[in-house]
Amino acid sequence: MNYNEPLLWEKGEGLTTGYSFPKESVPQTESNSRHLRDNFFLPSFSEPVVARHFTRLSTWNYGVDTDIYPLGSCTMKYNPKIHERIAQLKGFSDSHPLQDDNYSQGALEILYKTGEYLKEITGMDDVTLQPAAGAHGELVSMLMFKKYFKEREENRTTVLIPDSAHGTNPASATMCGFKVKVVPINSDGYLMPEVVEKYMDESVAGIMITNPGTLGLFEPYIKEICDIVHSKGGLVYGDGANLNPLLGQIKVGDCGIDAMHINLHKTFSTPHGGGGPGAGPVCVKKLLSDYLPSPGVKFNGTNYYMDYNNPKSIGRVHGFNGNFSVVLKACSFILSQGAEGLKKISEVAVLNANYVRVKLSEFYHIPYSADSMHEVLFTDKYQKKIGISTLDIAKGLIDRGIHPPTIYFPLVVSDAFLLEPTENESLKSLEHLIDIFIDIAKEAEYNSQKLKDAPTKSVINRVDETLAARHPVLKGEILGRD
Amino acid sequence: MSKFPEDLMYAETHEWIKKDGDLFLVGISDYAQEQLGDIVYVDFPEIGKVINIGEQCGELESSKAVSEINMPFKGTIVEVNTELEETPELINESPYDAWIIKIRAENSSDYNNLLNSREAQKVIEGDE
């Protein structure tokens, strides 16, 4: 069934009531608050109208439970249902973060052990589970860099960031008062040691590197680059958004990374995007341990406890202990996979991306010749000649029931689209995806107008994104009302 | 094929520069607007600010990306084209009329070190 559903604002007068209060048992009083407003109209409906509205909207959803979700750089993995069941166990769901440590031993053990697993996976010395998302982890890391240099009385003002980085990297560094210097990658898509050397001096606090980078390529000179930065007294931050293809293959700590965030909602399969809050734990080398957010979870051989004695800490960055249920689901994922399972994940994720790469190479332009890691980058170069853009290709996917990949990112490649199938997809599912992409390439050639009009099968057809950005409507208004 | 009028000079980062009395107008090239796609917002620099060569002197937001405008040589921001606040599409429609900032060069002869139309054309051939 395919039906339309207006916004609540457009649903008629919106003056019915969805609740009834019991008769008051205390006398009414007048409020004299200056915040009282009488010209403020929110639509109001009865409960069934509201329930139907949101249920109807929910039928338009597309998620990892619907079909393949090949959103590059986002690692949209299936979220095993057993994690939800574990998170709903009464011992967890009914516990409160203000309970005494003695009554929270189970929850604290989960936090502590998940931290230990992440340290083992990354080869790092210490960890915080507080950050609530990847970019939050970046910010926490940059705050620690700042504090590290402040303690050492070194005035370092600049952070180096490759031009292929996620946009959140410069934002995080800037928020900490650093100046960002952009370092160009070379024509093969790699960050080169000699280029980093040219930019690196005693005014530079460090570098933020994503490995594999946003082009889906492994940085082969990562160790040399880390050595150069360290030799000038700088620190290396690893953006862990692309950790999936490294699981069980290398430990980033061995490459020379000093701090790295991990997106539990990517690599460790906890819900992502609209599915719930995320978590961006940060793993660090010893030299940054003192600056980690406080409190951390410790174990004294008998008991787990919250450790508040961290005088050099950058402070608290999240209420209580981060998003506990997310950490719990990631813990469940790590334990259910085991060391062998995690290794297999990276192998299959890389294999899947390269399978798509090879199968589609004759239909879509591939800007870099190296093998892909977990994601593969294409452009619309072949289709552009016949007037079809990356956006048209993405819209064509919607008509074929598939969520589009990441488009127009990374910015260093013009008109890119970045596909990340993840390890979830079977050979059959990959073939399905590949067939659809080939079908679009053929439609571009023989029936391009159809692609320019796409999507036509979705409830909302092609939207005018430019108009929406130039003249955004940011306020809901009840129709027919002054 | 993108146009590069011969009476203008260009920066490698795809800005055009036009002499306007003893001041200079800066916009983005036809090639740059084509690459960016529909421009939806222009973020101007502060008037009176002195900015170094190669440093950011504004930002363009398109439906695809956010891109920096770079200072073609050291100078002071004298004026910004406020018409673009409401109608950023002018940059797409007529990139060489839609100037974005007006600057006073610290050293006017810097203008002569920019790329001419033929050289600018070559730079983008390298890109493509």
Secondary-structure arrangement, i.e. CATH architecture of the largest domain in chain A: 3-Layer(aba) Sandwich
Structural class of chain A: alpha/beta
- Proportion in helices of chain B: 10-25%
Summarize the main sheet of chain B: 6 strands, antiparallel
The general outline of chain B is globular
Number of domains of chain A: 2
Number of helices of chain A: 15
CATH class of chain B: Mainly Beta
- Global geometry of chain A: globular
Greatest interface and its participating residue counts: A-B, 8 and 12 residues
| Count of helix runs of chain B | 4
Radius of gyration of chain A: 25 Å
Write the SSE topology.
The complex is a heterodimer of chains A (482) and B (128).
Chain A: H1 47-58, H2 81-87, H3 90-93, H4 105-122, E1 126-128, H5 134-151, E2 158-162, H6 168-175, E3 179-183, H7 193-199, E4 204-210, H8 222-231, E5 235-239, H9 252-255, E6 259-261, E7 282-284, E8 296-299, E9 304-307, H10 324-360, E10 376-379, H11 381-384, H12 390-399, E11 406-407, E12 416-419, H13 427-446, H14 448-453, H15 465-470
Parallel strand pairs in A: 2-3, 2-4, 4-5, 5-6
Antiparallel strand pairs in A: 1-7, 6-7, 8-9, 10-12, 11-12
Helix pairs in contact in A: 2-10, 4-10, 5-6, 7-8, 10-13
Chain B: E1 9-10, E2 15-20, E3 23-28, H1 30-36, E4 39-43, E5 50-51, E6 56-62, E7 66-70, E8 75-80, H2 83-86, H3 89-93, E9 101-105, H4 117-127
Describe what you observe in this structure:
The complex is a heterodimer of chains A (482) and B (128). In chain A, helix 2 (81-87) packs antiparallel against helix 10 (324-360), helix 4 (105-122) runs parallel beside helix 10 (324-360) and helix 10 (324-360) packs across helix 13. Chain A has 482 residues and is an alpha/beta fold. Chain A has a seven-stranded mixed sheet, with helices on both faces. Chain A has a three-stranded antiparallel sheet with strand order 10-12-11. A two-stranded antiparallel sheet of chain A has the order 8-9. Chain A is built from 15 helices and twelve strands. The two termini of chain A are 36 Å apart. The model of chain A has no long low-confidence stretch (mean pLDDT 94). Chain A has two domains: 81-336, 3-Layer(aba) Sandwich (Aspartate Aminotransferase, domain 2), CATH 3.40.640.10; 339-469, Aspartate Aminotransferase, domain 1, CATH 3.90.1150. Chain B is of the alpha+beta class and 128 residues long. Chain B has one domain (9-107): OB fold (Dihydrolipoamide Acetyltransferase, E2P), CATH 2.40.50.100. Chain B is 21% helix and 34% strand. Chain B has four helices and nine strands; from the N terminus they run E-E-E-H-E-E-E-E-E-H-H-E-H. Chain B has helices at 30-36, 83-86, 89-93, 117-127, and strands spanning 9-10, 15-20, 23-28, 39-43, 50-51, 56-62, 66-70, 75-80, 101-105. In chain B, the strands form two sheets. Chain B has a six-stranded antiparallel sheet with strand order 1-2-3-9-8-5. Chain B has a three-stranded antiparallel sheet with strand order 4-6-7. Chain B is globular, with a radius of gyration of 13 Å. The chains are: A alpha/beta (482), B alpha+beta (128).
